[in-house]
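Methods — Computational structure assignment.
A single polypeptide chain was analysed. Its primary sequence is given first, followed by the predicted tertiary structure written as structure tokens.
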Amino acid sequence: MNNLFYFALILLAGIGMAKIVSRFKLPHVTGYLLAGVLIGPSILGIIPMGVADGMHIISEAALGFIAYSIGSEINFSKLKKMGKSIITITLFEALTPVVLVTLAMIYIFKQPLPFAIVIGAIAAATAPAATIMVIRQYKAKGPLVDTLLPVVAMDDGLAIISFGIAFTIAKSLMSASGTISFVSAVLVPLWEITLSLGIGFLAGLALSYLIPKIKGEDELLSIVISTIFISIGIAAFANVSTLLVCMTLGITIANFSRNSIRAISIINRVTPPIFIAFFTLAGIELDLSVLRYAGFLGIGYILARSLGKTLGATIGARLTKSPTMVTKYLGLTLLPQAGVAIGLSMIAQTVMPEFGATIRTVILASTVVYEILGPVIAKNALIKAGEIDPSQI
């Protein structure tokens, strides 16, 4: 069957399920994910896995747009007012789950130290896409959203650094020499992040230069999309983080372009069907069978990481004297985990065959849980924080 036919089914299934779950006051993104699970190989098998694999370009585009949107919400003047609080909160919300997951794997589940260190480092990563979709759907705004956006923007960079260090330590523990390379543990991750920021910044400057010269809306839309896609392509070629590159692109436009509002809002004309397809495809790719194999190890990982995210965000917010709603609810909006974590688990599986398969199974199983429950939890947190207008529910 033609891929365009399958693409149409994916869109219609996502829209239909979103309408169904909205009757139960659930976020649309939850409906998209459930639609994907239903029509995917795990249940009905209407969409074969091979078809989903052939549509990765949609996922790449969607993640690029989402990262661009996150970056465009980060205003340097707002960050200056927040001062060191964002950095402090990010450090605690990212590193506390690393510590708790590592300790749980060692002392509760009696796993080898290299295994515990690597899977603990992966626990730092957060997937912002689902939470951002909830914010957009319900037009959420307030101190919690203002804190969440820069935190998730920095989270992936910190996750990459922690994984690089942990991975090198784990490999050294498994080797005969037991030596740790400073270059591979610290400098390589730092170089990847620096290069990502540089690519995004240069792309943003180029787009900022072009925006005032473009008169028509259609031409501007084409130029913005082209810039995002070129940035994604360069990031893939340089083997650096696509999310960081596109976030930096958005940040640069928001802070250095005289016509930033035009360049930021215009992509909303094309993103709705891309986002619907992206999350429905994510549901198709969720393999429910991995839940059987993850067992108690998977449950332990989910509980330890969830506790780490909520506890770390709370500690960081209290230390910085953040508003009460940030202290109480920020951690709950940071629970979803998907793309970056899966990518890191695939690296672990390739380079550490002794433990990699188990790590990937646990991460995939946790992704199923986080991606389905995460948007619901985030929505409830935003409601309790008073940042979703009751008329939007």
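Note: The chain has a mean pLDDT of 83.
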